[in-house]
Amino acid sequence: MAEAYLQAQSRTGKGKQVSKHLRNEGLIPGILYGPGEVPALLTFDKKEFVTLLHTSGRNVVVDLTVGDKKKVKAFIYEIQHDPLNGDIIHVDLKHISLKEKMDVTVQIRIVGIPFGVKNEGGILEHILHAVGISCFPADIPDDIKVDVTNLHTGDSIHVKDLVHDKFEYNAEQDAVVVHVVSPKVAAADEAAEVSTAEPEVIGEKKEEE
C-alpha cells in the first residue's frame, strides 16, 4: 500500500474569488468529506501537494493532518484542473477506513511485445487504459500490469482474464483490454470510422459561432 503524508489548514471562506486569492498565495482549496461527517473546507500547500503526486501517485492512502489535529486516513477522489494551463484548482479527499472496501480507478500498463507483433506482422491495439476496482485501501495497486508477450494475431485479453485475489473489477467482464489485429483489419476499421463521419455539404452556409 502506497502511503503519504499531507498537511492541511482549515478555511472558512468559499467561492470563486476566495479560491482565486488562495491560489495566488500558492495554496490549493479543497474539501474533506466522509460518511456521516460535515464536509471540512481545507487548503493545501501547492508545492507539497504536487510533490506528493509525483512521488506517490494518485492511488495513495494519505495520512492527513488538519492544523494541529489528529491525523486521519484519506484518499484523493478528485483533482480539478484549470482547462487552460492545467494547474490544480481544487482537490476532493474522502475520509476512509482501512477496514472497508472502496472503489478506485487504476491505470492498466502493458508489459512485453506480443508474438503476433514480432513474428506475424500484427498490430497491438490497447483498448482499455484504466479500470475500476473494489478493494481494501491496503490492496490498492499502483497499476495493473498486463503481459501481452504470448498474444498471437487475433488474440485478445479481456477484463475477465485479469484474475486477481486482492480486488474485484467494476467493469464488464467481456470488455477488451488489448488485442492483436492484422494490418488489414486495422486498416478496415480505420476506413469504417472515416466512412461513418458526417460529410460536409458543399455550398451549405455554416452557422455563425
Overall pLDDT level: 86
Give, in spatial order, the strands making up the sheet with the most strands: 1-3-2-6-5-4
Q: Report the helical percentage.
A: 10-25%
What would CATH call the architecture of the largest domain?
Answer: Beta Barrel
Strand content: 35-45%
Please state the oligomeric state of the protein chains shown. Answer: single chain
Based on helices, strands and strand pairing, what is the structural class? alpha+beta
Q: What this model shows, in words?
A:
This protein has 209 residues and is α+β, with helices and mostly antiparallel strands. It has two domains: 3-95, Beta Barrel (Ribosomal Protein L25, Chain P), CATH 2.40.240; 102-194, RNA Polymerase Alpha Subunit, Chain A, domain 2 (Beta Complex). Helix content is 18%, strand content 38%. The protein has helices at residues 16-24, 46-56, 115-119, 183-195; strands spanning 3-10, 27-33, 40-45, 61-66, 72-81, 88-95, 102-111, 123-126, 130-135, 144-147, 156-158, 168-169, 176-181. A hairpin with a 6-residue loop joins strand 5 (72-81) and strand 6. The protein is elongated. The termini are far apart.
Could you provide a short overview of the structure?
The chain has 209 residues and is of the alpha+beta class. It contains four helices and 13 strands.
